[in-house]
Amino acid sequence: MGNGVKEGAVRLREDADTVLPSSVPSKTDHRQVLSSLFSGALAGALAKTAVAPLDRTKIIFQVSSKRFSAKEAFRLLYYTYLNEGFFSLWRGNSATMVRVVPYAAIQFSAHEEYKRILGRYYGFRGEALPPWPRLLAGALAGITAASLTYPLDLVRARMAVTPKEMYSNIFHVFIRISREEGLRTLYHGFTPTVLGVIPYAGLSFFTYETLKSLHREYSGHRQPHPFERMIFGACAGIIGQSASYPLDVVRRRMQTAGITGHPRTSIACTLSTIVREEGVVRGLYKGLSMNWLKGPIAVGISFTTFDLMQILLRRLQS
């Protein structure tokens, strides 16, 4: 607790300009929220577009019973390029953007708000939160964003694993699912998503904020360089995604059950089927090595873009 107080005091002294005092008018608070929403949206869009081909490949393996290997993954990328063209590697990315832009905007903005709320409650501020509230702020931000944007995630998964002839665009996916499978299908797989986002978002934000705090304490510099932010984000991505990956596989199977031939069942049944037919490691961690390649890149770009945009917008406003 003593270290937490010391960290809070250092943060108050060295970075007082990052959070405005409570006496600032509500107009400025609204401006902060809009700034977080815009920065988060841009961060999510850049990060996901950068790794979209790898993400699509990972989803294809997750929802099939094929054995994953790096060689097979890159072979799939190569044959997709040969047979369908270069831009087919980004198939489903428009649906990804429709989901990621609001998801990232809500998640980053919610995280800033939860940090402020928990900071007031514990008597700390922002990044100076003690470890458990820091973890809680990230988890709550992830739950908030996932709850509000889940149908878009399901649509993205459907478009990633189906040929172009099946769904012509995002709206076509919504129409066909609603007509042929029912509106409830749009939230099929929501429970494993929430269960997975708690460790993923919680650990990602916690790791990134903690590494920035340690950097500030031991380097003597108030702000890390962009490359250092990328490294911190990469570490956050590896830890968060590794912790939540089995639930990500279960979520994808449940989301695409109607079109891949897998039965539409509960989390427990889906989990047991994967383990029984494919094994624990080969089934529940299928594609994890691909995630270790794309995850650190995406999360590093996302966190770095958000921070740098926040700094830029604060300077423009001042």
Automatic annotation (TrEMBL):
Keywords: Membrane, Repeat, Transmembrane, Transport. InterPro entries: DNA_mismatch_repair_CS, MCP, MCP_dom_sf, MCP_transmembrane. Solcar repeats lie at residues 31-117, 133-214, 224-312. Pfam families: Mito_carr. It is found in: Membrane. It is a multi-pass membrane protein. Its main location: membrane. The keyword Repeat applies. Belongs to the mitochondrial carrier (TC 2.A.29) family. This is Mitochondrial coenzyme A transporter SLC25A42. It comes from Pipistrellus nathusii (Nathusius' pipistrelle). The lineage of its organism: Eukaryota, Metazoa, Chordata, Craniata, Vertebrata.
